[in-house]
């Protein structure tokens, strides 16, 4: 039942000694319906000799009965569990499978690819170190691939293995594999996943699963099994910040008081100075008690009992932490929330919040936005329904001690429990927004100081308008790369200047060289760049000057936020509507080619959606008209609106 | 491996201890189902570790069908009750006994329903237990692969596979209403091999029936049944024969199939298990009543 090993029959003691030193790896398999997920798992179990003869006999009989694989044994039948599912041929819940080799024991969370079941994938992913994302070689990256990858990254999975399956059905062609790889790479660049690997396989035929494939000599990487056995996961753990949520207080006698719990992160030794939260009581670790005697040290993942030097009254839900490194302690925080229940989230409603070993009450005070898991777009939404994901502001009745989820899963995760149904309705991951955090955008960030007064200027907007002969407005030129935004912007600037107006141009170049030089090109960072540009444009407008902004600004929500910053009455949207084919042809820097191959990520029109404005004040078909004509039309609009007089 | 890695057994151990402590902290009246088998032995060892130096803060419960192997009862009384001094509740469905329900007269399905499932429900109701630990593992059977660690049961102790609570991270949801309960499976992620290796490493005492010995056996429908006492009704032509056998799983003796074996030490048992070609539950007759049989039993409240 375990993998085949000579040692079993020749030297069982040596075999046992070898197997006592195995590591544990938890992985998640995800793919769309029919991507061959169950077949892959069946193949791993089968080829690692984890299947008993009676099980094999029974699936042989079932294979004939359900008959989806003809003569071959349908390995998928090994893993499809409950009766109803077996009949439908769909896995509808999370099922756990086990197999082991001489190096590792594996726990597979087998989660469904079916649309309605995001919550099951989230459940499975919450405990996994690694995710295998299956892609059908014939179909490439599909909507569900994006969804699964997003969820894996959201749940803090550090390693992703993209397995391009059914290579046998595309004649094992390298180009097909490389193309899928390119598309995936470009799309995944804005997900926070440290390690992505790509592998061409055929689960049905066994190519590159356990044994290297003779059909794909062009592929030089390792097999799936070799990767799973060797991928380095030890470094994923947090050993630097001691977090020990007290789970149970053990007081069998008057002279023994032990705090039982599992170390969430960090290392603890007798003599360490610690702090008990939330009371902030200092103390010292006296000993680490176990039934096998006292330990010299204990580290993340171990279930131990700590005894402290000073007798204090700490209880379940309190947290023992290293004195030199405290977690945040607050009753308000922001979190990404996955909604798990049929009844939608109700902002303001009190739920039970379970975080580490502490239970308290709390509510979602604001739903900041919902994430469309297919496009990764942010949308304004009043609530979250089943399987929806959004960012929330939470307010609890008591403070909790937490860290950012991506840094510390155990102290960053929480669940919401409905007080009436007792169901687990929400899964939350705390986002610790730190000042200068360049990964997130800051549209919703509050100023760091609450002592900022607004001093009134002694120069009124009216006086400025009279001086310059213009209203200080922002003209946003939005459109795809290659639509002519920058060219039009500088031509407009020249024209206005010649007309005696005061104006300036903001574009990606001058913003990213200075104010935004810390930003990259993820969706968040693009959004943050637009926010900063809007703030700069606002200051320019306040000074009475016209700001000509040339930005792709592909996101509808971000444009709306920019409008809010600048002010609706002085924000003019001009859409340069040249279609993508024309833009591609005009592209002299080869940006579209780079986007196609995945070397530039989140490229609007290629790997990121461009949402054309629905209510632009002016639409310029820049593929049909000249730059001069375009400038003429913008100036005519400004004139008509009495912006320039 | 670097210094700060746990082996897979140490990780499994830590996770199980976490679950045991969590239930002890959050529930009013937990109980540990103790079946006297090897999985129960591991679960009990973990409970002893979790609460050391205190004794586990909950009683053990054995549902005695009166048809268990005599070796099992001896082990239970002499080792668990007397030597370890643990709080042990033994419950039998007296109505079933009065009605003369036996594995021979009522068929394995009815018998199991009445003596095991009903007996268990009676014991849980009588003790007003709101959480019951069981030693089931997900690798035992396909339908168990999807069972949660905390498995919610309604007032009738039934399990609804379509209405399971999602279980995220190690944040177990133990919220229940009056009369409802949770079955908790601390060994969910252990496999048969893990269990044996742990018994080996930790030197955990187990019932001698797991080791091969000469035992009186009859062969019935291809299964080797041990004649453990005079109640075994022999059919025409059946004559008990002494055979070197052992048991991979223990239950009621008329329903437990033995295997011919020479394994008299733990490493030999593990060796045999690794080389064998049949899965663990095949020796249990009750799974084979009907297709999808375990799932049907679980819905009714069987572990």
Q: Might you state the CATH topology name of the largest domain in chain B? A: Rossmann fold
Level of helix content of chain B? 25-40%
The number of distinct helices of chain A, counting runs of at least 4 residues, comes to 18
Number of helices of chain B: 8
CATH topology of the largest domain in chain A: Rossmann fold
What is the CATH architecture descriptor of the largest domain in chain B? Answer: 3-Layer(aba) Sandwich
* Spatial separation of the terminal alpha carbons of chain A: 86 Å
Through-space gap between termini of chain B: 38 Å
The total of beta strands of chain B comes to: 10
Backbone structural class of chain B: alpha/beta
- In terms of quaternary structure, the protein is heterodimer
- In total, the number of domains of chain B comes to 2
- State the fourth-level CATH superfamily of the largest domain in chain B: HUPs
Give the biggest sheet of chain B: 6 strands, mixed
CATH architecture of the largest domain in chain A: 3-Layer(aba) Sandwich
Spatial strand order of the main sheet of chain B: 3-2-1-4-6-5
Structural summary, described in words:
The complex is a heterodimer of chains A (645) and B (303). Chain A is α/β, with parallel strands linked by helices. Helix content of chain A is 27%, strand content 26%. Chain A has a 7-stranded antiparallel sheet, with no helix packed on it. Chain A has a 6-stranded mixed sheet with strand order 2-3-1-4-5-6, with helices on both faces. Chain A is globular. In chain B, strands 3-2-1-4-6-5 form a 6-stranded mixed sheet. Chain B has a 4-stranded antiparallel sheet with strand order 8-7-9-10, with no helix packed on it. Helix content of chain B is 35%, strand content 14%. In chain B, helix 1 (8-26) crosses helix 2 (38-51). With 303 residues, chain B is an alpha/beta fold. Chain B has 2 domains: 8-195, 3-Layer(aba) Sandwich (Rossmann fold), CATH 3.40.50.620; 207-288, no CATH class. At the A-B interface, helix 2, helix 4, strand 2, strand 3 and helix 6 of A face helix 1, helix 2, helix 6 and helix 7 of B.
């Amino acid at each position: 039942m375990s993998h085949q090993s000579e040692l079993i029959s020749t030297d069982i003691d040596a075999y046992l000694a070898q197997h006592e030193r195995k590591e544990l790896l938890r992985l998640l398999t995800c793919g769309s319906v029919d991507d061959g997920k169950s077949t892959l798992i069946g193949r791993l179990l089968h080829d690692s000799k984890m299947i008993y003869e009676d099980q094999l006999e029974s699936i042989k009989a079932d294979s004939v009965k359900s008959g989806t694989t003809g003569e071959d044994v349908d390995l998928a039948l090994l893993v499809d569990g409950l009766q109803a599912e077996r009949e439908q041929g769909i896995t509808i819940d999370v099922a756990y499978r086990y197999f082991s080799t001489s190096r590792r024991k594996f726990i597979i969370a087998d989660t469904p690819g079916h649309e309605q079941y995001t919550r099951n994938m989230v459940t499975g992913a919450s405990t996994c170190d690694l995710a295998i994302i299956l892609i059908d070689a014939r179909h490439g990256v599909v909507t569900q691939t994006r969804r699964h990858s997003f969820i894996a990254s959201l749940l803090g999975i550090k390693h992703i293995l993209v397995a391009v399956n059914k290579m046998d059905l595309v004649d094992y062609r390298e180009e097909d594999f490389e193309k899928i790889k390119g598309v995936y790479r470009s799309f995944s660049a804005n997900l926070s996943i440290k390690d992505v690997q790509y592998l061409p396989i055929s689960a049905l035929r066994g190519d590159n699963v356990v044994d290297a494939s003779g059909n794909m000599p062009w592929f030089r990487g390792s097999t799936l099994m070799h990767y799973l056995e060797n991928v380095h996961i030890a470094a994923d753990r947090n050993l630097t910040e001691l977090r020990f949520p007290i789970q149970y207080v053990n007081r069998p006698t008057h002279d023994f008081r032990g705090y039982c719990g599992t170390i969430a992160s960090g290392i603890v030794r007798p003599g360490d100075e610690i702090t008990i939260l939330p009371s902030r009581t200092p103390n010292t670790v006296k000993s680490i008690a176990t039934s096998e005697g006292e330990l010299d040290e204990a580290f993340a993942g171990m279930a131990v009992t700590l005894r402290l030097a000073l007798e204090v009254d700490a209880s379940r839900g309190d947290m023992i932490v290293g004195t030199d490194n405290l977690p945040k302690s607050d009753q308000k925080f922001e979190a990404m929330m996955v909604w798990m229940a049929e009844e939608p989230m109700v902002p303001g409603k009190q739920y039970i919040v379970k975080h580490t070993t502490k239970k308290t009450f709390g509510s979602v005070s604001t739903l900041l936005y919902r994430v469309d898991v297919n496009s990764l777009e942010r949308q304004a939404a009043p609530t979250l329904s089943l399987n929806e994901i959004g960012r929330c502001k939470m307010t609890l009745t008591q403070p909790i001690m937490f860290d950012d989820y991506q840094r510390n899963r155990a102290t960053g995760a929480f669940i919401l429990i409905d007080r009436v149904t007792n169901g687990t309705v929400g899964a939350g991951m705390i986002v610790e927004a730190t000042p200068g955090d360049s990964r997130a955008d800051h549209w919703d960030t509050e100023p760091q100081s609450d002592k900022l007064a607004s001093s009134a200027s002694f120069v009124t907007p009216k006086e400025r308008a009279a001086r310059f002969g213009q209203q200080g407005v922002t003209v946003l030129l939005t459109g795809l790369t290659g639509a002519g935004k920058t060219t039009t912007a500088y031509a407009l600037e020249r024209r206005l200047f010649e007309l005696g107006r005061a104006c300036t141009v903001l574009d990606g170049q001058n913003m990213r060289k200075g104010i935004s030089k810390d930003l990259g090109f993820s969706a968040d960072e693009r959004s943050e760049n637009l926010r900063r540009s809007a703030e700069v444009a606002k200051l320019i407008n306040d000074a009475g000057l016209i700001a000509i902004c040339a930005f792709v600004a592909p996101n509808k929500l971000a444009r709306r936020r920019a409008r809010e910053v600048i002010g609706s009455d002085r924000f003019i949207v001009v859409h340069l509507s040249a279609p993508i084919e024309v833009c591609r042809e005009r592209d002299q820097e080869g940006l579209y080619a780079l986007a196609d191959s995945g070397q530039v990520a989140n490229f609007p029109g290629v790997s990121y959606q461009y949402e054309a404005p629905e209510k632009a004040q002016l639409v310029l078909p820049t593929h049909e008209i000249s730059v001069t004509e375009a400038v003429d039309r913008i100036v005519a609009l400004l004139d008509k609106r009495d912006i320039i007089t | 491996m670097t210094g700060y890695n746990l082996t897979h057994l140490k990780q499994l151990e830590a996770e199980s201890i976490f679950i045991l402590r969590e239930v002890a902290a959050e529930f009013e009246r937990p109980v540990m189902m103790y079946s006297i088998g090897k999985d129960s032995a591991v679960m009990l060892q973990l409970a002893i570790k979790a609460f050391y130096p205190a004794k586990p803060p909950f009683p053990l419960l054995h549902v005695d069908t009166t048809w268990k192997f005599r070796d099992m009862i001896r082990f239970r009384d002499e080792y668990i009750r007397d030597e370890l001094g643990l709080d042990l509740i033994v419950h039998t469905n007296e109505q079933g006994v009065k009605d003369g329900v036996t594995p021979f007269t009522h068929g394995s399905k009815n018998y199991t329903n009445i003596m095991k499932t009903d007996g268990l429900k009676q014991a849980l109701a009588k003790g007003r237990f709101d959480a019951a630990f069981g030693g089931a593992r997900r690798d035992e059977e396909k339908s168990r692969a999807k069972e949660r660690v905390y498995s919610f049961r309604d007032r009738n102790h039934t399990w609804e596979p379509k209405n399971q609570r999602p279980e995220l991270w190690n944040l177990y949801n133990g919220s229940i209403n009056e009369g409802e309960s949770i079955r908790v499976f601390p060994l969910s992620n252990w496999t048969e091999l893990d269990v044996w290796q742990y018994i080996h490493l930790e030197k955990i005492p187990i019932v001698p029936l797991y080791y091969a010995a000469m035992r009186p056996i009859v062969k019935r429908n291809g299964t080797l049944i041990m004649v453990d006492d005079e109640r075994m009704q022999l059919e025409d032509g059946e004559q008990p024969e002494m055979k070197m056998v052992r048991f991979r799983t223990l239950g009621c003796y008329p329903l437990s199939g033995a295997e011919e074996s020479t394994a008299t030490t733990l490493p030999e048992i593990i060796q045999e298990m690794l080389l064998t070609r049949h899965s663990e539950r095949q020796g249990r007759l009750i799974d084979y009543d009907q297709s999808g049989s375990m799932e049907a039993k679980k819905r009714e409240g069987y572990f």
